[in-house]
Write a structure and sequence with these properties.
Layout: E1 4-5, E2 7-15, H1 24-28, E3 39-41, E4 46-52, E5 55-65, E6 68-75, H2 81-94, H3 102-108, H4 115-121, H5 132-142, H6 147-161, E7 163-167, E8 170-174, H7 178-181, H8 186-191, H9 198-211, H10 220-228, H11 235-245, H12 256-267, H13 274-284, H14 289-301, H15 315-324
Parallel strand pairs: 1-7
Antiparallel strand pairs: 2-6, 3-4, 4-5, 5-6, 7-8
Helix pairs in contact: 4-14, 5-9, 5-11, 10-11, 12-13, 12-14
The chain binds a DNA duplex (13 and 12 nucleotides) through α5, α6, α9, α11 and α12.
DNA sequence: CGCCAGGTAACCC
DNA sequence: GGGTTACATGGC
């Protein structure tokens, strides 16, 4: 499949305004994240796509220094002045450029289990370039399957219903919007995209987020309850949405995978009851349990990342792989 | 073949 | 309410 070419339309200089150190590399690239084709990273650069309603946006980012992110913006269609501020705000939020980290660092420095993760990942923030709809889809695809199946379903959905774009020397996939996905039938999701029983719940996600934009959903307090009214969104998916796309640093979405990692690191046990773990983390890191979990999980994968950094001369192979992947 | 994987809804008492 | 169980699919 031939990717659509995006044109260079802007360059943004985004200062880090949050307190505490900022790590460009460990914030934008997460060793535990599975490969989606929506982003790719080398030692010095990150490429990522975004959807702003109709507009497809590609961004190539690097760090001018540890207080300044430089983002080259590539778009299709008409790039309007209003898009500049929206993209800038999206990047600031996605990578927490304006979030303070000092309170967490202070808490974590008192906890022995946090010493190594803090040293290795100093300045790492939560990364979530996904909006509420997109992170809900990711969480849905993580439910009760192996990562290889999650990766397969993600590839199917993005190949069949998303976009393929080329910019700044890199080919990437881009998300479909909720409105675009709302037109896809459960039969197609099941038979073509191999979604299994998720084929019946995903259309509920698409309809909900087609009708409720991120701006509508600003009411933090009741958001988790609102999300759980969507069929297929339970405690785990709602918590991932709260901690990632709403960026609530106190929330942890526990699943069998991170539960075992956290139990081992914090309780010295192979596993633990979710309630015990939640209570323990709230006590150790009041207001910052989610950030603490982030550091522990990413540290677990830093030596053998799920989707490793690419060598600069491997981008050609990367592009070929995406452009020839089964449709 | 049976089990399980980075859960959830529907049913049971 | 809290404790089961089916749910699709693919890899081992």
């Amino acid at each position: 499949m031939k990717p659509r070419h995006l044109n260079h339309t802007d360059t943004l200089q985004l200062p880090v305004t949050g307190k505490g150190p900022f790590s460009f590399r460990h914030t934008l690239w997460k060793p535990s994240h599975f490969g989606t084709g929506l982003e790719v990273h080398t030692a010095t650069h990150s490429w990522r796509t975004f959807r702003l309603d109709h507009l497809v946006v590609g961004v190539r980012m690097s760090a001018e220094n540890d207080r300044l992110l430089v983002a080259d913006v590539f778009t299709d269609g008409h790039y309007e002045p209003e898009h500049r501020e929206r993209i800038a705000q999206r990047l600031i939020t996605s990578y927490g450029l304006d979030e303070d980290l000092d309170e967490f660092t202070e808490l974590a420095s008192q906890v022995p289990a946090m010493q190594e993760p803090l040293d290795t990942l100093a300045g790492m923030r939560q990364s979530c370039p996904e909006d509420h709809f997109e992170i809900a889809v990711i969480s849905l695809l993580l439910q009760n399957v192996t990562i290889s199946r999650t990766t397969q379903m993600t590839r199917n959905l993005l190949t069949h219903h998303g976009k393929l774009v080329h910019f700044a020397g890199v080919t990437l996939r881009a998300w479909f919007t909720a409105a675009e996905l709302a037109g896809v039938t459960p039969e197609t999701l099941k038979e073509q995209d191999r979604l299994g029983y998720r084929a019946r719940t995903l259309p509920h996600f698409a309809a909900f987020f087609r009708d409720h934009t991120t701006q509508d959903l600003a009411d933090e307090e009741t958001l988790v309850d609102r999300f759980q009214q969507i069929k297929g969104v339970g405690p785990y998916t709602a918590a991932v949405m709260a901690s990632h796309s709403s960026r609530n640093p106190s929330v942890v979405g526990l699943d069998v995978w991170n539960r075992k990692i956290l139990a081992r690191r914090l309780l010295g046990a192979e596993d633990a009851a979710p309630e015990d773990l939640q209570r323990h983390m709230k006590e150790l890191f009041p207001g910052h349990a989610g950030t603490a979990a982030l550091y522990l999980v990413e540290h677990e994968f830093i030596r053998s990342p799920v989707a490793p950094l690419l060598a600069a001369d491997a981008l050609d192979v990367w592009n070929q792989t995406l452009e020839t992947s089964a449709a």
